[in-house]
Specification:
single chain; 267 residues; alpha+beta; Arc Repressor Mutant, subunit A; 4-stranded mixed β-sheet; 11 helices
Amino acid sequence: MVKFTTHKKENFTMIDNKLIYDSNLTAKSKAVLIYLLSKPNQWNTSIQDISKNFKDGYDSIKSSLVELEANFYLDRKKTREPSGTFITEYNVFEDKTHNPKNLNYLRDAIQSGNSTPIQSGKTTSGKSTNNNKIVNSKIKKLYKKEFDLWYSLYNKKTTKKQAYSYWTKNIRSMILIDNIMRHTKIYVQNTEKKYRLDPLRYLRNEKWEDEIIQKEVSKEEREIELRDEAEKKLHLKYEKQQEYLKKAEEDACSDEERRRVLGVRRR
């Protein structure tokens, strides 16, 4: 069984224009979402029953639900009833910015200073919630993860604390982070570690804006790289074979054990 809970603005079906003009959704998925929003706030159904209201089949409706979930119009979870029956629960959102899992929107809204339906820390009844703390905690974890990925890629273990402090205060855009990641990959490939700036200076001097002269790899150097890679693979294969043989020897029984199992007496 599938249970749907809709989160819409009114009891009649008036659709937000942002949904209609969302270019990330196919026309079919928009139609399915409008159908779901037309239903009562809580209702039980099945994907098979939903598909009866469309010419599209079961698989087509299922793919629309997957698309809507990927774009934060749906939130799905599975629960188990005391009887042992599994139920899939969907929350349906007319406005995807109301979905607590929509961290992309939350992050961008917090960066720009705009308020969000979740960040405000109030429910529709006016009661206080802890959502503000939860959202801020999730955003901090996201930035920490992105910084750790970059710091590991940069591979120069110094000024980490200072670099992270600069990152959290100044690197506030995913587009900027993507640019830094792309530049760092090329920078690391073409600059020896001893000549690289420390991570803090790289960020503070905005080195990702600099053009990098990439090294030209000669045919001979490329052949050496390919040969080294082939030798490493052969070495790993040899080590695995040796481990297998060693294990086989350890597992093998002695002549005395073999005779005892077979019931053969020694002459």
